[in-house]
Amino acid sequence: MIRAAARRRDAEERDWLLRGTPPPPWLRWPPPLLLVVITLLQWLTPETVDLTFLVVAAPPLAALSYGPGATALMGGAVVMLLLLPGFGLGRPGNSDALTIAFIALLSVVFAWVRSRREAQLVTVRTVAEAAQFAVLPPLPERVGRVRFAGLYQAAQHESLVGGDFFDVRRGPGVVRALIGDVRGHGLAAVGTVAALLGAFREAVLDQPDLEGVAARLDRRLVVDSEGDEHAELFATAVLLEFPDDSTVVRVVSCGHPPPLLLRGPEVIELPVASGPPLGLGISGLAPPEQLTVPLLAGDRLFGLTDGVSEARDASGTFYPLAERISEMVKADPATLDDPAGLTERVWSDVLRFAGTVRDDVTMMVFAPEERTPGPDTA
What we know:
This protein is α+β, with helices and mostly antiparallel strands. The protein has twelve helices and 13 strands.
């Protein structure tokens, strides 16, 4: 499966105030705790010390996490503690009591407005996520004899889909995978991503080879850009094919970074010829050349987009992907048995190296088995 949603939820919890998303659960505790602590402190301190000004903060704090009803109860509790005899929580005058009541009322209004806005945002985000998941639906952990896992991170905040795209599908006697990168980022590239994935899913079923699949994707972009001289639709992509009857992988590259072959601690960049990108009319140019690579037991294929390979540190040095993966496998050979864990470790290492990555990032690890298992998972 491709991991992305968990990191998005973590970011929402950290940046809830700026994003306008519902506040985290821990924010419900400060208002009542403040009220209880200040009341106890007032009872324990001399009457000459007035802590009234501190409890006034309880209703506005409640408005950040509670609804209007709970905020009104919090404001009412503050007013009662200040006005009812026997509590000893300061001695506010009439004007002070009116001011505190007015602050509590404003807090209720603020809580009402915030609750309505959160409800609207939840509705909008739910619809947006459903639409984006329709473009890039969750993938299973296995298709045919190929296990795989990956990691995807869109460069644009609040977006599940950016300029990168990927898919793994069952074809007649083969499993075919696609990893690509559309020109541009964020929501502006979603339409092109949807068109390419739709073309790939059809081509997997009726094209006899990867060159035919690439030609179908290229035609999709060429047709979409007809009549618009400023469209400039193009994409890079790498296609992989795992036949059921042999332990090889066939690879075709359309201007995309080549996959890496992980053979124990040895990391080999596959020498696949890089054809022209999709959308330039490759049927009229030099078609992409297919590379066939024999696979040994335990071999893994690491596919990526340039968001990984072109990540740089403060000095401008590119991230040494092959070297870092080799070091990870040498330190822990079992890493190759956990494709999902490998992509997570590489992503964490990229962030430590570069600090931040401003491009879309996709990583996929394929673990083909030596023979086809029982029922296919499609």
